[in-house]
Specification:
InterPro entries: TM_pro_TauE-like, TSUP/Inactive_protease-like. By secondary structure, the protein is mostly helical. It has one domain.
């Protein structure tokens, strides 16, 4: 599963967490905390490979003057989002309710992302400039992605389309860079506060699948046009919405 999720994630620039998180919640084999941690580690491995390889091959299509402030803001936001999630878990006292909240918010966010992608040609984008504005946008992205446990993915893409008027493929590259920084912070926070006990073999296999998926996804992405990537992204979002609604019903029933 992590291989397939990371492959489509690398192609579309959404990281893979947007697929792994709801699917693992649906399977119900692990707790919400375990799923969040495993998804985060997989996303981190995949994006690290993709970004490092792109930098080494000098194929990064992003603008570091924009992406670095976005990434720094997302890093801080990632830590804040992780703290927010922990506070919610402490307040409600039931992991199932935390899962229900995440599923509901993720369904709404994914639906908004889907609608924006479909109608983005009719929406006027902006060209935000400056370190502080970029960092503030990144901060918001980091909070949302870390709280939802998805790494960022579709939220990042919509922000890059809307605030910076980027085309699909450059946006995917920048999104992966932002996810790398924000997910690194979120994972370090989890490790510092005490990571959940997860099966070692599952962790190793998911991380390996994430890296291999990143490799395959990068190669496939090179041969696809922006319109094709958009179609894949729209189909993926529709599937994720359906899974999230199913998870919401399941967690609410528990």
């Amino acid at each position: 599963m992590s291989f397939g999720a990371s492959t489509i994630g690398a192609i579309c620039g959404v990281g893979g967490g947007i697929v792994i998180k709801p699917v693992m919640d649906a399977l119900g084999a692990l707790s919400v905390a375990q799923v969040n941690f495993l998804a985060g580690c997989t996303v981190l491995a995949m994006t690290a490979y993709s970004v490092v390889r792109a930098l080494a091959e000098k194929t990064m299509e992003g603008d570091l003057g924009r992406d670095v402030p976005l990434g720094v803001g997302a890093t801080i936001g990632g830590m804040a989002g992780k703290a927010l999630l922990g506070a919610l878990a402490t307040a409600v006292g039931r992991p199932e309710l935390v899962g229900a909240v995440q599923a509901a918010v993720l369904a709404v966010v994914t639906l908004g992302t889907l609608l924006y992608t479909v109608f983005k040609n009719r929406i006027t984008g902006y060209c935000v400039q400056g370190t502080v504005p970029c960092a503030l946008i990144g901060l918001g992205l980091g909070v949302c992605s870390s709280f939802l446990g998805i790494g960022g993915g579709p939220i990042n893409l919509v922000a890059l389309y809307f605030f910076f008027s980027l085309d699909t493929k450059p946006a995917a590259t920048s999104s992966l860079f932002i996810i790398l920084l924000s997910q690194s912070a979120a994972t370090l926070c989890t490790l510092a506060s005490g990571a959940p006990d997860v099966p070692a073999l599952v962790l190793v296999l998911m991380v390996a699948g994430g890296v291999i998926g990143g490799m395959v996804g990068r190669r496939v992405n090179r041969g696809l046009g922006g319109a094709t990537v958009d179609k894949l992204f729209i189909g993926l979002m529709a599937v994720i919405i359906a899974i999230c609604l199913g998870n919401l019903a399941k967690f609410a029933w528990l």
